[in-house]
Amino acid sequence: MEQRRWDRDTLPEGEEKVQAVREMFDAIAPRYDLVNRIMTFRLDVRWRRKAVRLLALPPGSTIIDLAAGTGDLCVDLRRAGHLPIAFDLSYGMLAADRSGSPRVQSDILRLPLRAGAVDGATCGFALRNLVDLPAFFAELARVVRPGGRIALLDVGVPHNRLWRWGNNIYFGKVVPRIGAWLSDGAAYRYLPRSVAYLPPRDELVDMLRAAGFADAEHRQLSGGLTQLMVATRD
Ligand SMILES: C[S@@+](CC[C@H](N)C(=O)[O-])C[C@H]1O[C@@H](n2cnc3c(N)ncnc32)[C@H](O)[C@@H]1O
Questions:
Q1: Which of 19, 60, 72, 125 has the fewest Cβ atoms surrounding its Cβ within 10 A?
Q2: pTM of this prediction?
Q3: Is 225 in the pocket of ligand 1 (CB under 6 A)?
Q4: What is the C-alpha to C-alpha distance for residues 67 and 26, in angstroms, rounded to an integer?
């Protein structure tokens, strides 16, 4: 049997990465929410709510949730009175959406939206899956109106050495077993390895500022297990 693209020694790049990411999320979509809740002890729910809170936009705002997956952020956005629209590459993830929001199948590096069309954007745990982060930030700057806000979440690397050690063991050894038991072990082995795609936080902030979000700030959540960037479109 051909080895899956996300289960090779070297991490895929370019178009091969796009295909690998889409196939992998199609494969894990049915159990994605269950595995997420178990492997984060429901902390993921708290992180998304914080992102929506710090977005700090008035109720009724039109917000695109990029790489929306099964729609967790859309649920929180609706709860805060916003009008979310979900965009994702994977039909499997979009089909598993539970938020009831409008859904669009799209690569978020090329959004089918006019310039300044939306009040805000969120993106949860997907930056490391993209092939070109500066292009993504430029696309955000294009579609978010001046004064609009963005909140971007992704996994992080704890600063504290002990936390980092525990985090490596947990994501390197325990999470792939949970994944293999409930879903797809290879996909959950890919998860800790994919963090290598993420630039350091100062670089991420510099990229956002250069793209047109001058006040971009970076926060560590839960001791650095997760990182959150929030910013206003200039
Ligand atoms: C780890 S999941 C996160 C889902 C959701 N945002 C959450 O917070 O649970 C990553 C999602 O990013 C999507 N994705 C990855 N690359 C993408 C791209 N270039 N365009 C659109 N969606 C993408 C995947 O299909 C997957 O649904």
A1: 60
A2: 0.94
A3: no
A4: 13
Q: Decide the pairing of beta strands 144-155 and 226-232.
A: antiparallel
Span 36-59, average pLDDT: 94
What is the SS3 assignment for 226?
strand
CA pair distance 135, 207, nearest whole angstrom: 10
Measured CA to CA, the distance from residue 167 to residue 178 in angstroms comes to: 15
Distance 198 CA to ligand 1 centre (A): 15
Amino acid (1-letter code) at residue 27: A
Sequential DSSP letters for 105-158:
E--TTS-S--TT-EEEEEEES-GGG-S-HHHHHHHHHHHEEEEEEEEEEEE---
pLDDT per position as a tens digit, 101-146: 999 999 999 999 999 999 999 999 999 999 999 999 999 999 999 9
Residue minimizing CA distance to atom 12 of ligand 1: 67
H/E segment holding residue 219: strand 217-221
